[in-house]
Structures are given as structure tokens and as C-alpha cells.
Amino acid sequence: MSADAAAQSPSKELLEFADYLYKPAKSGLRAREGVLNGRRVQFFKGKSALNALTKGEDNKPAKFASREEAVEWIQDLLDFQLVVRCDKEGEASRQMRINPVQSFEEEAYYAWLYEGSQLMIILGGIGVVAVVLAGVMFPLWPAVLRNGTWYLSMLALGLLGLLFVTAIIRLIVYVVTVLVAPQGLWIFPNLFEDVGFFESFVPLYGWEQPKDAKPATEDSGADASEKKIN
Q1: Which pLDDT belongs to residue 117?
Q2: pTM of the model
């Protein structure tokens, strides 16, 4: 770190730049997850950061006109320890160690020490305290609010129970169909997949794909061509 950076805090402009680069929705820079000194961190490659800063996407202009200017700003992030240069302990390893040379290079890796705006964390803390206080003061609530809360809690428990019943029924159907058919039948096959709420219930049912099933490949296309030739 330079003497000037050690003597003062990051400027507002540098923090705004760090926030821009930190958020993929703004910069397009996709960070990966690693472990530095036993702590989970997000890290990126220098070349990826330069590309994100100097190449416009979706009809948006680039953040910087030249790579040299982008390098200067990233070096400022290093000087103020908003990011730190690291080395991977192995190509496939997620373990990182700090590099003693804190200068920018395109092929090097950089871990975020900057964690973004703390506003949401503060608001979240306030929300937790508010929920706890509301729970403690529940006996003082008006009767209408208490009755409404009771009905809502019963509705939530009912929906949770319905989810468990659906999961048990779909498992029973799957086991029965596996015994009588080559593939098992799943009711709501996307129920526990990483999709949206409504997509979890579409389609209504689906047959399990065999593990050794292979999609049509170039080989099948070649076979078809041979048949045509013959």
C-alpha cells in the first residue's frame, strides 16, 4: 500500500467504483468463491475485470475507454485494500493465499475485502429487532390483530403440511411405477428443483429419464446418413 493510501480513507468515487465492480448486475464481472485465511471470499481474475470495464454490453458504454485507465482504478482498490492479490494453492483448489506483491497483473487473482454497502445489513438488523419486539408485545396486540395472526399461522402450517403430503404421495407413486415400469413416474417433477414457484408445478407429471440415455449425437446423424446412402 502506498503512503498516501495508508494515511487516508478511500474517496467516495473509489467506493462507488468498488460497488460498481463488485455487483455483477452493474459491471458484468462474475466472481468465484474461494477460501482465504479460513474465510469465504469472492475472487476474480485481472483479465476478466479489465474486459468488464473496457467492453460495453447490452448497448451500454464501457466504463473506461482504455485498459490503462482501468488498471489505475483497480490498483487504487489494491492500495486501499478493497481487494487483495492472491494466489491459488492449486489449479482446481479454492484455497487462496495472499501474494506479497500487491500490484495489478492481468493473469493474477484478486479477492474482495470490500463487502458492498452496509445499508441492507443495518436495515435487516433493525427488522430483526422489530420482529422480536413485536413478538414480545404480542399479548398487548388488539384482538383483531391477534386473531388475524392466528389464522395466518394456521394457513402457513396447512400449506407446509400439504407440501409434505404431496412429497410423500409423489414418492409412493414413483416407487410403485418403478416396480412395474422401466422408468419411474414423478408427480410434479420440478417440485424440488431450483426454479420459480409456479414452474415447480409444471409439468403435472413426468417419466424419469434413464441414466444411460444419451441424446441424439453426431453419431446418430452419421448413421442416418449412411442409411440414406445405402
Answers
A1: 72
A2: 0.54
